Predict the 3D structure of the following.
Amino acid sequence: MGWDWGYMIEVPERGSRRIPRRSIVFGQVTDASRAEARSDMVLMVWSGRRCAYVFLDEAVTMAVEGQLDDVDVPRVPGLMALLEPECPVVPRRVSIEAREGADWIEIEFDVRQAMGFMVPHPQGRDVTTVSELIGGYDVRGSLEDETFHFSYVGFAELAG
């Protein structure tokens, strides 16, 4: 089993209400190779404390691009690296697009740092690597004729 997920918020301006104007979370469950989805891809948008919009399945696409090769990616626990001497490929960029009718969101996640957590399978010598990614989100969209754009420093997790 594998998975992809992450979240971002539109940080409130200083002096304004403390609840983020928008919060977005995305995710899906995949097979161990991340090649085949085991669940629908979902992208949910909160407006304040209310879940305001949900994009499902074919309305959401995610793509990974490039390779984070100019940054040392530590693997934990280090001893597990003996079972998997090849370093996992960590993407440089994650792109997510959600479209349904006139509503749309485009998200670009620029990966700056990463860490790999290696989880042994209960049987055999296989290992699942959980890649924790840190970077900058750039979020653009239009929901119910309201256009928005914000940036957020956050994380995503890709496992498989």
